[in-house]
TrEMBL record:
<dbReference type="Pfam" id="PF00356">
    <property type="entry name" value="LacI"/>
</dbReference>
<dbReference type="Pfam" id="PF01547">
    <property type="entry name" value="SBP_bac_1"/>
</dbReference>
<dbReference type="Pfam" id="PF00532">
    <property type="entry name" value="Peripla_BP_1"/>
</dbReference>
<dbReference type="GO" id="GO:0000976">
    <property type="term" value="F:transcription cis-regulatory region binding"/>
</dbReference>
<keyword id="KW-0804">Transcription</keyword>
<keyword id="KW-0678">Repressor</keyword>
<feature type="domain" description="HTH lacI-type">
    <location>
        <begin position="1"/>
        <end position="49"/>
    </location>
</feature>
<dbReference type="InterPro" id="IPR010982">
    <property type="entry name" value="Lambda_DNA-bd_dom_sf"/>
</dbReference>
<dbReference type="InterPro" id="IPR028082">
    <property type="entry name" value="Peripla_BP_I"/>
</dbReference>
<dbReference type="InterPro" id="IPR001761">
    <property type="entry name" value="Peripla_BP/Lac1_sug-bd_dom"/>
</dbReference>
<dbReference type="GO" id="GO:0003700">
    <property type="term" value="F:DNA-binding transcription factor activity"/>
</dbReference>
<keyword id="KW-0805">Transcription regulation</keyword>
<dbReference type="InterPro" id="IPR006059">
    <property type="entry name" value="SBP"/>
</dbReference>
<keyword id="KW-0238">DNA-binding</keyword>
<protein>
    <submittedName>
        <fullName>Extracellular solute-binding protein</fullName>
    </submittedName>
</protein>
<dbReference type="InterPro" id="IPR000843">
    <property type="entry name" value="HTH_LacI"/>
</dbReference>
């Protein structure tokens, strides 16, 4: 390669290792690499550097869903840190485990993660302190010298067995893996409530042994009312035995993570641990040991399993309150509304109440609520943007729901903390139910940030590492780097897909930056403070961002989604409720290659929608019943699978939909830092055309982006118009009083 490039071998080495900024030499070497199809030899590089950048994972199998989750998550976490994965399968055999670990050491891996059911002392002896090793297992005791993650099922298992006893179930079968029988306390827990050791079976992890054990127990015991199984594969065999013997009345509880598609109709309850979090913890432990081998100390971390009963989607419907009249709802035309339309057919089938959803554009929906005389009459219910609640309450359109929530104890307990007040309450009165979530994340094409050539080029160009941007200044550097007009070597055409136009979406994008620059439109006392030095810096940053967007106006979030899905754009900021299709392989070219992080500046604007009941509806109680069902915990997962979103906290913590929306675990953190756009009392209830954010702010920002005025002029105009608007409202309010 040095000969082809016409340079020395040392120059080639310097270019490959990022030790030169000489553009001419870099171009020659990179051209030679392309002509020769050269790829650096990782093994050769490791001999020189004494590091392999390889980590080993030893698993008992890869057919168990928990093991699949561990493998998927650990590989992902390691890849993001620049490590490769070496996988070894032990078949749950202690002898093979030893061989696997010895082979890992021969491969010169930098560390090992091992899922084992055996005592760890033997494996520690093999490693001999030469490499860090992290153990994952279910045994109740681990060596004090081992860095371990202990998965504990005892408390959840006892809760399950105790509930069965309280429910009057006289005979219960217990089918567990042999690993859990040894030292886990499972048999002792069972014995506290049932004195039938002959109903306990120890098997391997396979579905075949599960079928054999369950069939035998059910065949011999006609009074058996429940079976508890130790893993998903055993449970599959048990389900087959239950069906063959027509014993569907037998309650089936199994050890697995919650998953709505798998659980409803199959399991009365589950006992699960979030294996994604287990995997993330294992990688953190190992990385810490690799980075600081002399200072790192082994610690045992415990993950407690949780017992969760499966509540069917249609279990709690009140079929006696059907009015015989259809319920009409005015909806914002979005994926969540279309999801509800599909689910509502189940509601109609079960209750006899027909649901009619009218799909409307954003501005059309507000017009519809204020113009019932259009011949269609007022809808029974409606979607309301969280920014509309105070106005809809003040103008008597939204009905208070306090008198309709009796008998729904605990219904609001598991919404994301703080969101019920933001989404559905006004002056401590409930006017809606949170329906469609709304917090923002930064999404990006992941491979762009992992490509070593691009990382070297970025470091040479800007003197810093190529990472997902944490500030808006960093954001513009990355956007510039990935815009081909600015960097001919960019693999994508544009750095950013940004919403534009005189609309509320543009105003939201401005608020992201405004808050990050420690400014705002209004102060806490309602004064207009938008025309400041910090605001000017924020707006200049924003207008610069739009130098890196595709041509043609993108006026909605869906427009930016389509642009990102095309594969031509590096980054986009989206609300989670609008990101439902970006990881759909049938629609998106970036599916499977999506990275995500908190937005730059950590200043997301809280968005989202609630469902409310019209004060003028004659079917208010029936409408409320439907709303409470549509926003229930039972409807959260199926609704999300169909394209909707939810504010139910369980959705963000269980593994349902992680393959579709891998970013959902980050949303809770984003909600915690989200802020609602401030509208002082003097500006509330304004006509839509004069709205603060949808009107004045958006219009002036749009002018600055288009170059119709300078950033200074845009802020001055915004300040003048807002002050005039506030003064006019105050004068009007004084005359009305």
């Amino acid at each position: 390669m040095a000969l082809r490039a016409g340079v020395s071998v040392g120059t080639v080495s310097n270019v490959l290792n990022g030790h030169t900024n000489n553009a001419d030499l870099i171009a020659k070497v990179e051209s030679a690499m392309k002509e020769l199809n050269y790829r650096p030899d990782a093994n050769a590089r490791s001999l020189k550097s004494t590091t392999s950048n390889e980590v080993a994972l030893v698993l008992p199998n890869v057919v168990h869903p928990d093991m699949q989750t561990l493998l998927h998550t650990i590989e992902l976490e390691l890849r993001e840190r620049g490590y490769n994965l070496l996988l070894k399968i032990s078949q749950n055999n202690p002898i093979l485990e030893r061989i696997c670990v010895e082979q890992c050491l021969e491969q010169r891996v930098e560390g090992i993660i091992a899922y084992t059911g055996s005592p760890v002392e033997d494996l520690l002896d093999i490693v001999g302190g030469t490499r860090p090793i992290v153990f994952i297992g279910k045994r109740s005791r681990q060596s004090a010298m081992a860095d371990s993650i202990l998965i504990q099922y005892e408390k959840a298992l006892e809760e399950a067995i105790a509930r069965l006893r309280r429910q009057g179930v006289s005979e219960v079968g217990l089918i567990l893996e042999r690993e859990m029988m040894n030292g886990s306390g499972a048999t002792e827990i069972y014995g506290r409530y049932y004195s039938r050791p002959d109903h306990i079976r120890a098997v391997d992890y396979g579905k075949e042994r599960g079928f054999q054990a369950a069939y035998e127990l059910l065949h011999r015991n006609e009074r058996m009312g429940a079976i508890v199984t130790g893993n998903y594969l055993i449970s599959e065999g048990t389900r087959k035995a239950i069906r063959l013997l027509r014993r569907e009345e037998v309650a089936h509880i199994t050890f697995k993570e919650q998953n709505w598609i798998e659980d409803e109709g199959n399991y009365a309850a589950t006992i699960g641990v979030p294996f994604r979090k287990v995997a993330e913890s294992a990688v953190r432990k190992l990385m810490g040991a690799i980075a600081s081998p002399n200072a790192y100390e082994p610690i045992t971390e415990r993950f407690e399993a949780e017992y969760a009963e499966t509540v069917p989607l249609l279990a709690n419907l009140d079929r006696s309150r059907s009015t015989g009249h259809p319920l009409r709802l005015a909806m914002f035309d979005c994926p969540a509304a279309h999801s509800l339309r599909m689910l509502s057919e189940l509601y109609t089938r079960e209750t006899g109440t027909r649901i009619e959803l009218e799909m409307l554009a954003y501005n059309e929906l507000l017009d519809r609520l204020y113009a019932p005389e259009s011949g269609r009459g007022a809808p029974d219910g409606f979607m309301m943007d969280i920014a509309w609640i105070d106005r809809l309450v003040k103008d008597g359109i939204a009905r208070p729901l306090g008198d309709l929530i009796s008998g729904r104890d605990g219904y609001f307990a598991d919404f994301v903390p703080g969101m019920l007040k933001e989404y559905a309450m006004q002056e401590d009165e409930l006017y809606g139910v949170p329906f469609m979530s709304g917090t923002q994340l930064l999404f990006f094409q992941k491979d762009l940030f992992e490509n070593p050539n691009l990382r070297r080029q970025f470091k040479r160009t800007y003197g810093t590492e190529l990472l997902p941007p944490a500030t808006w200044a960093e954001f513009n550097l990355v956007a510039e780097f990935f815009t081909r007009e600015c960097n001919e070597k960019s693999p994508v055409k544009y750095g950013y897909a940004g919403v534009q136009g005189a609309n509320v979406n543009t105003a939201i994008s401005f608020l992201n930056r405004l808050w990050a620059y420690s400014s705002d439109v209004f102060s806490e006392d309602g004064s207009v403070i938008v025309n400041s030095g910090n605001s000017l810096s924020a707006l200049k940053n924003m207008t610069k961002s739009y130098q890196y967007v595709p041509p043609g106006a993108m006026t909605t979030w869906d427009d930016t989604v389509a642009s990102f899905e095309s594969g031509d754009v590096a980054m986009v900021v989206l609300y989670d409720s609008h990101a439902v299709e970006i990881n759909d392989y049938t629609k998106s070219k970036v599916a499977g290659n999506i990275g995500y992080s908190l937005i730059p500046g950590r200043t997301p604007v809280l968005g989202g929608w609630s469902l409310g009941v019209s004060r003028s509806s004659r079917n208010g109680e029936a409408a409320a019943d439907f709303l409470f069902w549509a926003c229930s915990n039972e409807a959260a997962i199926p609704g999300s699978l169909l394209g909707g979103s939810t504010l139910r906290q369980d959705y963000y913590t269980i593994r349902d939909l992680e393959n579709l929306y891998p970013w959902k675990s980050l949303l809770l953190e984003s909600y915690g830092i989200s802020r609602k756009r401030r509208v002082p009392p003097a500006y509330r209830g304004l006509e839509r055309g004069s709205d603060v954010y949808n009107g004045v702010v958006a219009e002036e920002i749009d002018k600055a982006i288009r170059g119709a005025c300078s950033e200074e002029e845009a802020l001055a105009n915004m300040e003048r118009r807002l002050r005039a608007m506030g003064s006019g409202r105050e004068a009007t309010a004084g005359r009305e009083s």
